[in-house]
Amino acid sequence: MMMRSIFGLLGVLLALLATGCAGPGGSSRVGIDQVPMYGGMDREAVPALKAGDEQFIAQASGAFGSREKASKAWADRGFRLYAQGDEKTAMARFNQAWLLDPKNPESFWGFGLILRDRGDLEGGRRMMRRAHSMGLREKQFLAAYAKMGEWEKMLGQ
Question: What is the sign of the dihedral through the CA atoms of 90, 96, 97 and 103?
Fold first, then answer.
């Protein structure tokens, strides 16, 4: 019983440590939900995160009928929040959309827009290219993707 409590506490501490990463210059902390694809961390290795993710996936996919439909709904929420200027919550929604369906190109489109706006042009381009390579061809995406190409030209890249 004591060992289980210790491992439970250790899991919570690891989850808390995993929720942030060093920002520019290493001086600021950014929540892991503010990094595309949760920064690539293995969320299944942290029991608290794994359980939370499983519960979220079950509830969202149950509400929308499938993980893919739920992912689309969460990406749509992300785009609405982004349009309203709430970049932080939008990034969290794009991460949740990706968690629901890692093959949803709209997640990568959202990641690309936000990274670009944060000044990470190369990261934004990578995400936009990924969305395009996954077959995303919506008019608004193609316009943003073309504009990204214009920025590449302006930067000489």
Answer: positive
> Phi/psi at 6 (nearest 5 deg)?
-65, -45
Lowest mean pLDDT among 21-35, 36-50, 57-71, 103-117: 21-35
The verdict on pTM exceeding 0.85 is no
Category of 30 on φ-ψ map: left (φ > 0), alpha (ψ -120 to 50) or beta = beta
Judged by average pLDDT, the poorest of 4-18, 58-72, 117-131 is 4-18
- How far is residue 86's CA from residue 77's CA, in Å, rounded to a whole number? 11
Q: Whose structure tokens read 């509400």?
A: 63
Counted domains in the chain: 1
Range of the domain at 134: 30-154
Q: How far apart are CA 96 and CA 112, in angstroms?
A: 15
